[in-house]
């Protein structure tokens, strides 16, 4: 990748000026009479020993600070204006308009050697002059072109860099001033209430670079080499600072309340690891679900935005190493964050053929499994079970499993929509937004049940904590509710909330019903091993209303335990409810 080169400001940048090639001043005031000018110069001198005064060709009298080198003068202008120690309309003067020096005056009272604390000069109302005060005339367009012609290539590139930083220039940093650069200069001039000539004067160049240097300084951009991760990158160390390693991540926390966090990514791996990292990052609280995603064969990029978080992440696979970065911020900082991301993107490179050592710090088993590295994982509000009922991945579950959900997923990652909600039967049908390929489709028993039959419930007992469903065994106690309600089957079985919505199967693998939540007991406190299931007849009614024809189970003998487990868990889906 290309690297961002932050070019230092040098005194030679400005070329030749009228009075002295290596000196500039900060002009802070101009007064119409010598008496007024001396009074103001005396006041400023109590705070700024370098105060000077010059009569201008216009007949006015300028109060200035300096002289300074070009870089020092630009920094002084920016800093003193920021601290409100000089008027906001102060500017850089090259001295071309200075005629005679009137301050310091010969025999003037000596200035105090020390001041306990700097005191800003008292700003008093100036009597209204006969003519409006005017600033020292700037260079003409021809003079600006002549001074511009003396700039070095690095000087010209720096100007383009500054224009680009403030959003006026989108071309390459090549030091060639073509139409694009000229248009960007005119746009900068217009934005600063200056005649848009497309040629910057010496004073305008100083102002632009001073503002640029001040902003860059606040970011604290610095190129770091992260030896453990094998990454070289430019980071804003004025906004973030190193926090800790937790492979495969290097964490940089916010600094000075910036609200910005940066994570470097470094791990060995192949394409499957890259794709796994892509999936894992999207489970983090720091990566909102709304935003653009793109994943290719060897790289991915994620943008996540919400009311509270704005995150961009990217990673690339190269020569068996996966390296990348993540910037986590708050909305409202788009301009700042865009500059940070551009600096990272253009400077990021692999500095060695090593990746972050997984043994660098002790990690929990959960961290090792999920590569979560201390980042808070996004969790659903709750998860329940469901049954795959057709070849495209439609899922039958309970109404309780989809109530109050901002979004619903099937098997953790697949977005789904509610097609039918059957409140009377307490059932719901979900349709995945992208077709799925279930390992098994449920087949429902239509023949009469035998009381006392051994049954099993397949479900995600511990919700999303385990990667696959489990089987819980029990018996079919009755084919109606406690008050004789039809369509319910009473089970003697101990289940957990995560099992709700899972299939109730017999020894042949046929589905006898769907496990309902405990509310089916009409709110009464029932024994812990008493649960109810919706019958195959109620299930068929709901599926038909969703345009799905239920599959009827074919008579067959009992399955071996391992085959029964494979069939029951293969038709069971994890249904997750998210905020």
Discrete helix count: 11
Please state roughly what percent of the residues sit in beta strands, choosing from under 5%, 5-15%, 15-25%, 25-35%, 35-45% or over 45%.
25-35%
Kindly state the number of beta strands.
29
Overall morphology: elongated
What's the alpha carbon Rg, rounded to whole Å?
Answer: 37 Å
pLDDT averaged over residues:
83
Distance between the termini: 39 Å
Poorly predicted ranges: 1-21, 107-135, 365-374
Number of domains: 3
Strand order, largest beta sheet: 8-9-10-14-13-12-11
Based on helices, strands and strand pairing, what is the structural class? alpha+beta
Fold topology:
Blueprint: E1 24-31, H1 34-45, E2 51-56, E3 61-68, H2 70-82, E4 91-93, E5 98-103, H3 141-149, H4 153-165, H5 179-191, H6 202-219, E6 221-226, E7 231-236, E8 240-246, E9 249-254, E10 261-268, H7 271-281, E11 293-295, E12 299-305, E13 310-318, E14 321-329, H8 334-347, E15 349-350, H9 365-370, E16 382-388, E17 395-398, E18 407-410, E19 414-422, E20 427-432, E21 443-444, E22 454-459, E23 470-478, E24 488-492, E25 503-505, E26 511-515, E27 530-535, H10 536-545, E28 551-552, H11 561-570, E29 572-578
Parallel strand pairs: 21-28
Antiparallel strand pairs: 1-3, 1-4, 2-3, 2-5, 6-7, 7-15, 8-9, 9-10, 10-14, 11-12, 12-13, 13-14, 16-17, 16-29, 17-20, 18-19, 18-29, 19-20, 22-23, 22-25, 23-24, 24-27, 25-26, 26-27
Helix pairs in contact: 2-6, 4-6
């Amino acid at each position: 990748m290309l690297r961002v080169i932050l070019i230092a400001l040098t005194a030679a940048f400005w070329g030749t000026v009228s009075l002295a090639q290596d000196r500039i001043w900060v002009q802070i005031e101009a007064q119409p009479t010598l008496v007024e000018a001396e009074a103001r110069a005396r006041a400023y001198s109590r705070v700024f020993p370098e105060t000077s005064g010059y009569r201008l060709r216009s007949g006015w009298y300028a109060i200035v600070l300096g002289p300074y080198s070009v870089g020092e003068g630009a920094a002084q202008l920016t800093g003193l204006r920021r601290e409100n120690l000089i008027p906001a309309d102060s500017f850089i003067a090259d001295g071309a308009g200075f005629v005679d020096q009137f301050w310091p005056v010969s025999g003037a009272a000596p200035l105090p050697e020390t001041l306990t604390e700097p005191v800003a000069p008292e700003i008093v109302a100036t009597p209204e002059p006969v003519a409006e005060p005017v600033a020292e005339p700037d260079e003409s367009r021809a003079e600006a072109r002549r001074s511009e012609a003396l700039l070095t290539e690095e000087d010209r590139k720096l100007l383009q860099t500054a224009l680009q930083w403030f959003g006026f220039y989108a071309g390459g940093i090549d030091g060639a001033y073509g139409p694009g650069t000229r248009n960007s200069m005119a746009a900068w001039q217009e934005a600063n209430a200056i005649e848009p000539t497309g040629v910057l004067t010496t004073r305008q160049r100083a102002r632009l670079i001073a503002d640029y240097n001040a902003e860059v300084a606040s970011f604290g951009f610095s190129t770091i080499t992260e030896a453990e991760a094998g990454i070289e990158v430019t980071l804003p160390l004025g906004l973030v600072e190193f926090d800790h390693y937790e492979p495969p991540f290097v964490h940089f926390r916010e600094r000075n309340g910036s609200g910005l966090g940066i994570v470097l990514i470094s791990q060995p791996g192949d394409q499957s690891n890259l794709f796994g990292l892509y999936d894992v990052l999207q489970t983090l609280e720091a990566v909102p679900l709304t935003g653009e995603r793109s994943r290719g064969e060897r790289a991915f990029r994620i943008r996540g935005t919400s009311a509270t978080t704005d995150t961009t992440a990217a990673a690339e696979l190269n020569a068996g190493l996966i390296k990348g970065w993540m910037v986590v911020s708050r909305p409202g900082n788009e301009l700042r964050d865009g500059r940070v991301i551009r600096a990272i993107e253009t400077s990021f490179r692999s500095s060695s053929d090593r990746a972050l050592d997984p043994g660098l710090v002790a990690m929990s088993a959960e961290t090792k499994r999920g590569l979560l590295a201390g980042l808070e994982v996004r969790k659903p509000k709750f998860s329940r079970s469901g049954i795959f009922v057709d070849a495209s991945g439609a899922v039958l579950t309970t109404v309780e499993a989809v109530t109050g959900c901002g979004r619903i997923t099937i098997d953790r990652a697949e977005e789904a929509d509610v097609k039918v909600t059957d409140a009377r039967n307490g059932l719901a049908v979900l349709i995945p937004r992208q077709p799925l390929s279930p390992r098994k489709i449920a087949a429902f028993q239509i023949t009469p049940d035998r009381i006392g039959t051994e049954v099993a419930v397949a479900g995600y007992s511990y919700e999303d904590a385990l990667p696959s469903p489990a089987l819980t065994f029990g018996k079919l106690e009755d084919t109606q509710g406690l008050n004789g309600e039809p369509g319910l089957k009473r089970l003697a079985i101990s289940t957990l909330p995560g099992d709700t919505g899972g299939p109730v199967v017999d020894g042949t693998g046929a589905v006898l019903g769907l496990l309902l939540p405990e509310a089916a007991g009409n709110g009464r406190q029932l024994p812990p091993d008493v649960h109810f299931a919706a019958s195959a007849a109620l299930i068929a009614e709901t599926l038909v209303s969703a345009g799905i024809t239920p599959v009827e189970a074919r008579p067959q003998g009992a399955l071996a335990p391992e085959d029964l487990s494979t069939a029951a868990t293969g038709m069971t889906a994890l249904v997750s409810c998210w905020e």
